[in-house]
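Lab channel / #folding
Pinned by the channel admin:
"Please post every new chain as: sequence first, then the structure tokens as a reply. Keep commentary short and put observations after the output so the thread stays searchable."

First post following the new format, from NK:
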Amino acid sequence: MEEKMIEIDLKALLNIFRKRWAWIAATTVAGFLVLLMVSLFMLPRKYTSSVSLYVNNLTSVSTTGGVNINDINASQKLVDTYVVILQDDDVLQQVADQLSTPMTVSELSSVISMESVNQTEVLQISAETVDPELSAEICNTLAEVAPSVLQRVVKAGSVEVIGSAKPSQTATSPNVKLYALMGALLGLVLSIGASIMIFLLDNTVKGEEDLKNRLDIPVLGEIPSFDNTASRRKKHAKSK
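Reply from TO:
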């Protein structure tokens, strides 16, 4: 059984793009505008607040006043342990009970993120909600609960809260520019893909060379079209 190979003429394909450039450009602009409008008017604004905690090993300061590099490494490893502990449902329930806005543990867990800052011994807690005041309150409440919980569970090391979380004045989500660029890219890809599909599905004969390639037989002659000549004759007759 012979397999039919689809040959793509790049020159013809580029010619299709050239002919459809206005449609491709319009689709790209349309995709840009659609996702721009969606991100501006349909997606909820979210605000992020953060608070940092310094994870300290009990022996991090030596008798000479220097810092032991081994204790710093131990503190960095403690950060990952602390993240796991602070994400426990019981800990989050303590935080939820103290919030002014009622939240379930699952809701609280979905808006909180914790990570080490640049692989250091600093633990950053962030919260992203639609209310900037609530985001800051979640971070500060968790920072208040964390020291006693970690001391009780780990029984080693300590954490010091660095400052406090402040309500954000600007929305951190959605990223309007990113959404708009994604819309433009999506429109461009779809329009180009549609142009290619139209090119591949077009089975009309374009000329002598196309006929030779399709049938693999010599062309003896070609009948010219007289449509233009006839139309010119009609126009000439009317003018008389």
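NK: The longest strand covers residues 47-56.
TO: also worth noting, The two ends are 64 Å apart (CA to CA).
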